[in-house]
Design a protein that fits this description.
Helix content: 25-40%
Strand content: 15-25%
Distance between the termini: 105 Å
Oligomer: single chain
Number of domains: 2
Order of helices and strands: HEEHEEHHEEH
Strand order of the largest sheet: 3-4-5-6
Number of strands: 6
Length: 218
């Protein structure tokens, strides 16, 4: 015969189990209802993308050391800094593509950031990599292009090929953002002497001088 106290304990445990099961079931139903409500309130429209605009790229050609003008329709953001990043990313994607006229590995991911700052003198010192991008209300701007370390490490070495990369970037920036008149370069957020042993990255480049005038030669 089962002792009375064991019977009482069993009944209490049974009641507690039933109550807890009921509570868990109610919590589950409420969570399910909240999930359905969240799905109903979620936006059904796809996020807007930047409208396509004509971009002007100055694409380097190793065959004759020239810059060729190429017009492409690209989705370009309204923000000047984001627009600069987009056009340079496309330029480097062309260089990374099979059969490129100026083969350079890396593509768009090689551009870490592009900062737009009020124009300074051409002999200005190093630019802080964490400077906030600012827009000058009027006048010209200085673009600071920050390459990834991998891009510099894998860039083909040679004065002509490095110079073409730098000049094509300067010309492309000025063509799409005319207020950009000067360009500086960083690698992994730090000043660097050269791109891959030859092209000088310590100087400030005049973007207007990089744009070819006749014969497509910089």
């Amino acid at each position: 015969m089962i002792p009375r106290y064991q019977t009482v304990i069993f009944v209490i445990l049974l009641v507690v189990s039933v109550v807890m099961g009921s509570v868990l079931w109610q919590l589950r139903e409420r969570a399910h209802e909240r999930l359905l409500a969240g799905e109903d309130s979620a936006p059904t429209q796809a996020p807007e993308v930047a409208p396509a605009e004509q971009a002007t790229l100055f694409v380097a050609n190793d065959a004759d050391n020239s810059l060729m003008t190429q017009f492409l329709s690209l989705p370009l953001p309204q923000s000047p800094g984001a627009r600069a990043h987009a056009v340079l990313g496309k330029l480097l994607d062309l260089y990374a593509a099979p059969g490129a006229t100026h083969p350079v590995p890396g593509g768009a991911s090689s551009i870490a950031q592009v900062f737009l700052l009020p124009e300074t003198g051409s002999d200005s010192g190093p630019v802080a990599p964490n400077s906030a991008a600012t827009e000058s209300p009027t006048g010209s701007q200085l673009a600071v292009v920050n390459f990834t370390a991998a891009f510099a490490a894998n860039h083909p070495s040679g004065l002509e090929t490095e110079t073409l990369t730098v000049l094509s970037i300067c010309a492309t920036l000025h063509a799409n953002l005319p207020r950009v008149s000067q360009v500086r370069f960083l690698v992994d957020g730090q000043p660097r002497a050269t791109l891959a042993g030859h092209a000088d990255l310590t100087r400030t480049y005049l973007a207007t001088e990089a744009v070819p005038t006749e014969g497509n030669h910089p």
